[in-house]
Write a structure and sequence with these properties.
Aminoglycoside 3'-phosphotransferase, Chain: A, domain 2; 2 domains; four-stranded antiparallel β-sheet; 9 strands; 50% helix; binds adenosine-5'-diphosphate; binds magnesium ion
Length: 292
């Protein structure tokens, strides 16, 4: 995706042009446009919708499609991530901001075969399709399939609309208090998903930003019993619904989160996958399967 932010000199940005550069990116922007329309049409969300991009026009120049959005206020804050106090404030306000979406659109789903297909089988099949030639991958993924089918087995779970790629790089912050002024990049969003995806991605991807470790390594450590930091624990206690209602263990929550995330990444690559994907897979899929 090419993203062009336009501003008059010394003024804040006024419009953003998004141009997909691949077939998958074109599907992504279509998904995102659909999500923005659906959530903007949900009056329960009220003024919270001002955090979302507002598409104003779209079209094609030759074969190149584009969408123009009104620019949101605020700026990306990745340059402040290494600063402990600023990071803590951003995490607190970011977790609260996305909780509003989760809380407002919350509904109950049954952990039946249809749900297991959507949350477990489809993402696993995506990984298998991409890792097709590596026979060593299949046994671990099949073990994971069994474990997660058991985890969902017939109970009820609280689901909601999620952003689906909720890390600090997709937030724009304004002011000294680091309040979110915008949430961008909605192409991984979906209804009827577990809010844990956004919370765990926010926490674990921030760890990735701070330490430089691969997400696969971070999830491996967490599955192997590494403790949450005090701030992570506090946010998990406040927003981690699966811990309060006992619907899932931390291990099951981590595995469902990781699986959705890596399958979304895999979807962005053609299958059979190129060499670059193989390297990513060894860093982000293998370590988690080793921890099972
Ligand atoms: N509506 C917007 N208003 C202001 N900045 C935006 C907007 N949309 C995107 N951006 C900026 O462009 C960056 C990339 O956009 P994003 O939608 O996240 O695409 P990508 O898929 O490339 O990550 C964002 O991190 C943000 O800095
Ligand atoms: Mg982004």
């Amino acid at each position: 995706m090419a993203v062009i932010v336009l501003a008059t000199i010394h003024e804040p940005p006024c419009v953003v042009i998004k141009m997909p550069m691949s077939a998958e990116a074109a599907r992504g922007i279509q998904r995102e446009t659909g999500t923005l329309a659906a959530l903007r049409g949900d009056r329960r969300l009220g003024a919270w919708r001002d955090l979302m991009p507002r598409p104003c026009t779209s079209g094609k120049v030759g074969a190149q499609s584009y969408r123009v959005d009104v620019a949101l206020r605020g700026r990306p804050a990745l340059d402040r991530v290494q600063h402990g106090a600023a990071r803590e404030r951003m995490l607190d306000t970011a977790a609260e901001a996305i909780h509003v979406l989760h809380r407002t659109t919350a509904t109950t789903v049954l952990g039946d075969a249809g749900l297991a297909r959507r949350w477990v089988d489809e993402p696993l099949d995506e990984l298998l399709r991409h890792g097709g030639r590596r026979k060593s991958l299949a046994p671990g993924l099949e073990r994971l399939r069994d474990e997660l089918h058991d985890a969902l087995g017939g109970g009820t779970l609280s689901a909601a609309w999620i952003h689906g790629d909720y890390w600090l790089g997709n937030l724009l912050f304004s002011g000294e208090r680091s309040t979110p002024a915008g949430i961008v990049d909605w192409d991984g969003a979906a209804p009827l998903e577990l809010p844990l995806h956004d919370l765990l991605h926010l926490l674990l991807y921030t760890r990735r930003l701070v330490t430089g470790a691969e997400l696969g390594q971070i999830v491996h450590q967490q599955l192997s019993g590494r403790a949450w930091s005090s701030q992570e624990r506090r946010l998990l206690d406040r927003y981690g619904a699966w811990r309060q209602d006992g619907s899932l263990s931390d291990r099951q929550a981590l595995l469902l989160y990781w699986l959705r995330h890596v399958a979304l990444h895999a979807r962005q690559h053609p299958a059979p996958a190129p060499y670059r994907y193989r390297i990513w897979e060894r860093r982000n899929v293998d370590p988690v399967l080793e921890a099972l």
